[in-house]
Design goal:
The chain is elongated, with a radius of gyration of 25 Å. The protein is mostly beta strands and 481 residues long. Strands 18-19-20-21-22-23-24-25-26-27-28-29-30-33-32 form a 15-stranded mixed sheet, with no helix packed on it. A five-stranded parallel sheet has the order 3-6-9-12-15, covered by helices on one side. It has two domains: 110 residues, no CATH class; 318 residues, Porin, CATH 2.40.160.
């Protein structure tokens, strides 16, 4: 199966597993072709007014006819008598602005659309338009990105139009690990526009665990199902429902997925621990402002220990894997609240701004079974009958440009449990972790070679017996020209 996936043509989409949602996301690496063709036709039309670079339409002024702006940003405070397309730039409306036709933004975002009167529909696509100029910039043509895409090999078949898309996909569904080997997801994904600014999303994916059966209680197949109703493109609100049978990491924030996967696949060293997670969840979310998002989720899960399999590795294939530690098993009902504050100037390669993520969970169980193999020094004894604990987690990142060719990134991660945590949450009860990153850039999009982190670690103990880890890390990343 692994060889088959690597032999398939890599498409313009990839499956991304989000640990906090127990689901998969179909993320486009390039703009859907139907949207690309639509935007190019609009730009090249004889009646379109074409502008380039930072553009501003002052209050009281008017553009007559269709307008296309590439390489914005664009600030509109006046009136556009026609449709407006922004290519690879952001669009900002001021109070009293008006567009009599449609508004389409590719490679950027639409901000404050509620302040404007828009006669048609508003569509935004974060994926940039890949194009080159012809006839001294009077026309653009599609120029697909020819760089190899080797991150998530897979294949998919898509159909639909600019408003709705459906896909049948097979792709790698996460990082290589000692429990599943290489997980592979397969199945349909649907994204339909039901009404203006109202969408429905359905994912129905199976998970094939290439390392084999996990235990006598689990097969080598899992599943992820998600349904979501969303209203609004710029400031969305919505409801979601999901069901899952997956292998989850106990903690996933310490190292990047790529670092975990390649270390396991190449050298047989897996630096995460895992457990089986099966259940359902209902979620409500809202984004009242562009930079702020809130979520509230109710989950009911059955969590159990899982033992190592023996997936093949490039080196050290005959060596034994590090044992996967057991967890305290049982059914858990959790209410989780989360908030995200994202003030970065670029979500992919930020050079300034803040990113803050915080979550608070309240978990309860009536049938927790303490694992006999867990030492008493790891956590306090679990009371019989009703059991409850609260967990707080935060991740704060600061991006600062210190010169035209360099930046400093600072990250603070921490959390804790308000009661004696279960064995699977022992790392979650960790104290703060600080990471300082210095990056020197020689060009706009550098190729970074990461060095192994050098730091110092110490261990302490909370009064209730839960281990706390403190970690300080300073990392310097040179940039290769």
């Amino acid at each position: 199966m692994l060889a088959l996936l690597f032999a398939l043509t890599v498409q313009d989409t990839t499956i991304v597993i989000h640990p906090d949602s127990s689901s998969a996301t179909l993320e486009a690496r390039a703009l859907p072709r139907v949207v690309t063709d639509e935007v190019i036709r609009f730009y090249n039309a004889a009646g379109t007014t074409r502008l380039v670079g930072r553009t501003r339409l002052p209050r009281g002024n008017e553009w007559r006819g269709n307008v296309a702006v590439r390489n914005g940003p664009v600030l509109v405070a006046g009136r556009v008598q026609g449709s407006l397309v922004v290519i690879n730039g952001d669009l900002l409306f001021d109070t009293g602005a008006e567009v009599t036709g449609d508004v389409i933004v590719v490679g950027g975002t639409v901000d404050d659309s509620a302040k404007a009167r828009i006669g048609g529909e508003v569509r935004q696509y974060r994926e940039p338009l890949l194009y080159r100029l012809r006839h001294e910039g009077d026309e653009i043509v599609y120029a697909p990105n020819l760089r190899p895409r080797l991150f998530n090999p897979g294949a998919h078949v898509s159909w639909g139009d600019a408003d709705s898309r459906s896909s049948l996909t097979i792709a790698t569904g996460g990082t290589f690990n000692r429990i599943e080997g290489l997980p592979i997801v397969f199945g349909p994904l649907f994204d339909w526009k039901l009404h203006q600014n109202f969408r429905m999303r359905v994912d129905a994916l199976g998970v094939f665990r290439s390392a084999g059966d996990l235990s006598d209680k689990r097969s080598d197949l899992g599943y992820m199902f998600r349904g979501e109703l969303r209203s609004g493109e710029v400031r969305p609100v919505g409801l979601g429902l999901r069901a899952f049978d997956i292998v989850s990491p106990v903690e996933d924030w310490g190292l990047h997925n790529a670092e975990i996967g390649w270390a396991a696949f190449m050298f047989g060293r897996d630096y995460r621990d895992y457990f089986l997670d099966k259940g359902w969840a209902a979620r409500a979310f809202a984004q009242p402002e562009k930079q702020i998002a809130f979520s509230l989720e109710l989950r009911h899960e059955w969590q159990t220990s899982v033992v190592n399999q023996d997936p093949w590795t490039v080196f050290r294939n005959s060596a034994m894997w590090r044992p996967n530690p057991p967890i305290d098993e049982g059914h858990f009902t959790t209410i989780a609240a989360g908030v995200v504050l994202d003030g970065r100037n670029d979500p992919e390669e930020p050079t300034s701004g803040w990113l803050v993520r915080a979550s608070l969970e309240d978990s309860r169980s009536t049938d927790v079974v303490p694992h006999s193999g867990i030492p008493a020094t790891v956590r306090d004894s679990i009371p019989t009958g009703s059991y409850r604990f609260d967990r707080l987690f935060f991740d704060v990142r600061r991006y600062t440009r210190i010169s035209p060719s360099g930046r400093v990134n600072l990250r603070l991660v921490g959390g804790g449990a308000a009661a004696a945590a279960l064995a699977r949450r022992s790392r979650s009860a960790a104290g703060p972790s600080v990471s300082l990153e210095l990056v020197r850039q020689r060009h706009r999009r550098p190729r970074v070679r990461k060095l192994p982190p050098r730091g110092m670690r110490s261990r302490a103990r909370l009064s209730n017996g839960v281990p706390r880890a403190r970690e300080a890390q300073l990392e310097l990343q040179p940039v290769q020209g």
